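Example record

One chain of 313 residues, shown exactly as stored in the release files.
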Amino acid sequence: MKIAVVVPCYNEEALLQELLKRLSAVMAGCLGRREIDDYELVFVDDASQDATFSMLASAAAKDKKIKLVSLSRNCGHQVAISAGLDYTQAEAVIVMDADLQDPPELIPEIIGAWRQGYKVVHMKRRVRKGEGFLKRAPAKMFYRLLNVFSTVKIPADTGDFKLLDKEVVVYLRRLKEQHRYLRGLVVLAGFNQTTLEYDRPCRFAGKPKYSFWKSLGLASDGITSLSSRPLKVVTYLGVMGITCSVILAAYAIVSKFFLPQKALQGWTSLFIALTFFSGIQLLSLGLIGEYVGRIFEEVKNRPLYVVRQTVNI
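Predicted C-alpha cells for this chain:
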C-alpha cells in the first residue's frame, strides 16, 4: 500500500530543510518497518514569493519520492490542499501543514488507525502551544458556533491535519465549489471516522499565514458552505423586531392614556427604534448578500487553480 503526504506551502523557506529531514526520516522508517509498501511526498507551492519553490525543486531533483506542484497564483490554503489531492493516486493521503505544528512523528500512529479500518483519521489538538488566549478562544468558539449552525458536526479543535482514505479523496475530487472548507467536506463524506489527540507544538520557524481576517474568512466559508441555517436568523430577527415594535406601541398607548407623567417625550425613543431596526435590516441584507455572492461565484464554474509547473509528476 502506498501512502502520500500532501503539504501545502506558502513562503516557508525558513523551515523547509527541517521539514524535509523529519518527514523523510519518518516515512523511511515506516517503509523499513513494512508498515507501508511505498510513499510519496506531494508539496504544493501556493505561488510563494521566497525561495520555497527553488528549495523544493532542488530536493525533488535528488529524491524522486518528492513531488512538487507549483500553482500559477496564490489560491489559498484550502485550494492548495485540493490540488495536492488531485495529484496523487495513493491508497491513503495524510494532509499536514508545513510549519511543523503538525508533527511528522505522529504519522505511524495515524497509519495504524487507518489500518484498523478507519477511512478518516482526524487529529485533535489537545494543547496548542505558543498561542495566546486571544487566538485560542475564537478558535474554540468558532467550532462550537459552526456545530450550532450546521447539520455537519465537525470534531472540535481539529484542523486539516488528518488522514484520508482513497475513497474519501475520490469523493473530494468531485467537489468543485470555490469557497472550500475541507474540514467540513471530509465529515460530510461520511465513512468510518475516528479522532486521535496530540499536543500541538509551536511553529518551528517563520510567520503564521492565517491572519485574523483570513481566519474570519475561513470561518465564514465553513458556516455558509455547510449550512443555510444563518438565513433563518433573518426570519428570527424579523419576528423579534415586530415583537419589539408591538411592545413599544403598547407601552406608548398605555403611557399616553393612563400614565401621562411617564409618557415618552421627544424623538429620542423614535430615533433609537429607527436605528435598531435599520441595523437589523442591513444585517439581514448583508447575510443574504453573502449567500447570493457565493452563488454568483459558483455558477461561473471557473477552475479552482492553474498549475504553473510540476516536478516528478
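Notes: The chain has a mean pLDDT of 79.
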